[in-house]
Write a structure and sequence with these properties.
Catalyzes the reversible phosphorylation of pyruvate and phosphate. Keywords: ATP-binding, Kinase, Magnesium, Metal-binding, Nucleotide-binding, Pyruvate, Transferase. This is Pyruvate, phosphate dikinase. It comes from Sphingosinicella soli. This protein has 17 helices and eight strands. It has 362 residues and is of the alpha/beta class. Strands 1-2-3-4-5-6-7-8 form an eight-stranded parallel β-barrel, surrounded by four helices. The structure holds phosphoenolpyruvate and magnesium ion (MG). Phosphoenolpyruvate (PEP) binds next to strand 2 and helix 13. Phosphoenolpyruvate binds next to strand 2 and helix 13.
Length: 362
């Protein structure tokens, strides 16, 4: 494993000796993956795929996919996106060779993909052959008053399964390519976002499995992969025992879990939370440190129920809290297997995980 240099590097080596939890990273660009590896990340806990879709070279195809009124139109756009997604994942698997990689299927607030400028509409109209008037009507149909509680996460996969099918295919094909190059096993962990019911997970897992089987049949080679879920809605935490009968791992998305448990928008919280902390309404900013009495209880309950339903269920956290030392201590107490944080927080998380393990052993 690459080490940080000097005294700090030595400290990190000591810390790693005392650590129980693994430290992974939240990264989706090759540059971030490489930095995280250098800082000692032991895998990717969250590869968000939304930003890949915002790439200027792809956005027209993405808009075509979203705005198509039929599956045929969506599939035409997805065919164009598939090779690009495959190479995104090939690059990531290469950089992270030998380490686990969790890739989360698309979870955008939909409105971020919609065209706004006249020239955006022109580009989509040209690519899709659909008139600008029809595209505008479709955009108004898709408008949401509260996109963060709207048609995002697996809800998108339920309505447009072909998007998740394309992504699953790209992941499996990329994993087979890199496994072929290195001769080492690549075991992708495919993660379904914003799951609320077991049925959602079941439907999405079926899409992933079908796509994987099609790739195996076409290429004559197989590999192992896992399908797991984010736990980022209170309902999912409550239903964790049932969901764990289907899901092979859980990753706690504490950004959304905090937003939905407290009913405070993660995007607007800054406006009044400091007053709340000053006046003792909340002990700390709950979007930074796990709110032990609220989100914390849900995490520990879901971990318990999940593990009771599935022996050895792998548990991690990938919300921003995964890089917060106080929250990392909490994760140790709950017995999570890993924390995942942004690349530059990896050394802090290694240290905090070691301190937490030491404290727990006393
Ligand atoms: C989360 O909700 O905690 C999470 C990691 O997902 P995102 O921040 O991408 O919504
Ligand atoms: Mg989330």
């Amino acid at each position: 494993q690459p080490q940080l240099a000097g005294d700090f590097g030595t400290l990190m080596v000591w810390a790693d000796k005392g650590r129980r939890m693994k430290v992974r990273t939240n990264a989706e660009t090759p540059a971030d993956c490489a930095v995280a590896r250098e800082f000692g990340a032991e895998g990717i806990g969250l590869c968000r795929t939304e930003h890949m879709f915002f790439d200027p070279a792809r956005i027209t195809a993405v808009r075509q996919m979203i705005l198509s009124e039929n599956e045929k139109g969506r599939r035409a756009a997805l065919e164009r996106l598939l090779p690009e997604q495959r190479s995104d994942f090939i690059e990531i698997f290469r950089i992270m060779a030998g380490l686990p990689v969790t890739i989360r299927l698309l979870d955008p607030p939909l409105h971020e993909f919609l065209p706004h400028r006249e020239e955006d509409y022109q580009e989509v109209a040209q690519a899709s052959g659909v008139s600008i008037d029809v595209l505008k009507r479709r955009v108004s149909e898709l408008h949401e008053f509260n996109p963060m509680l709207g048609h995002r996460g697996c809800r998108l996969g339920i309505t447009y399964p072909e998007i998740y099918e394309m992504q699953a295919r790209a992941i499996i094909e990329a994993a087979l390519t890199v496994a072929g190059e290195t001769g080492e096993a690549v075991v992708p962990e495919i993660m379904i976002p914003l799951v609320m019911t077991t049925r959602e997970f079941e439907l999405m897992k079926a899409v992933v499995d079908k796509a994987a089987e099609a790739v195996f049949a076409a290429g004559g080679k197989r590999l192992d992969y896992l399908v797991g879920t984010m736990i980022e809605l209170p309902r999912a935490a409550l239903m964790a025992g049932e969901i764990a009968q289907q899901a092979e791992f859980f990753s706690f998305g504490t950004n959304d879990l905090t937003q939905t448990t407290l009913g405070i928008s993660r995007d607007d919280a800054g406006k009044f939370l400091s007053t709340y902390v000053d006046k003792g309404v909340l002990p700390k900013d709950p979007f930074v440190s796990i709110d032990i009495d609220g989100v914390g209880q849900l995490v520990s309950m879901a971990a318990e129920r999940g593990r009771a339903a599935r022996d050895g269920l792998k548990l991690g956290i990938c919300g921003e809290h995964g890089g917060d030392p106080a929250s990392i201590h909490f994760c140790e107490k709950v017995g999570l297997d890993y924390v995942s944080c942004s690349p530059y927080r990896v050394p802090i998380a290694r240290l905090a995980a070691a301190q937490a393990a030491l404290r727990a052993s006393k």
